[in-house]
Amino acid sequence: MTLLFVALGAAVGAPARYLTDRTIQRLHRGHFPFGTLTVNIVGSFILGLATGGTSTTTGVYALVGTGFCGALTTYSTFGYETVRLLEQGAPRRAVGYAALSIAAGLGAAAAGVAIGLDVWH
After folding, report:
1. pLDDT attached to residue 10
2. What predicted TM-score, i.e. pTM, was given to this entire model?
3. pLDDT tens for residues 76-104?
4. Region of 77 on the Ramachandran plot (φ > 0 left; ψ -120 to 50 alpha; else beta)
């Protein structure tokens, strides 16, 4: 049953990632990867909520945490886009993107955990 929850969450998370990334990038029309930054921060917050609000052994966590957030967020694209910025001769932008991604992702996850614990416990 857990595998089904993961698959269902991923079936929603992957298209959500694609559509969000494309929409955000279309709005900004630049070389900075705002779409990936957005999905990773939002995914970190949602994963924090799931972690703070449920046991990591529940079906809800498998659906939301592992399935949805696992498919929504993307570390590989973050890494690729950071390297791409370096290759384009934008080292400050690459370092800024990496620092912002990590700091905002950790902050969003921490906020999600705190809210999840406060609301559901």
Report:
1. 98
2. 0.94
3. 999 999 999 999 999 999 999 999 999 99
4. alpha
Q: Which pair of tokens denotes residue 108?
A: 């969003």
54, two tokens: 């449920």
DSSP per-residue codes, 63-105: IIIIIIIHHH--HHHHHHHHHHHHHTT-HHHHHHHHHHHHHHH
Note the Cα 53 to chain centre separation in Å: 18
CA pair distance 48, 46, nearest whole angstrom = 5
Can you read off the two tokens belonging to residue 88?
A: 């384009």
* C-alpha to C-alpha distance for 77 and 38, rounded to whole angstroms: 12
Compute the distance between CA of residue 48 and CA of residue 30 in angstroms, rounded to an integer: 30
Mean of pLDDT values over 62-73: 97
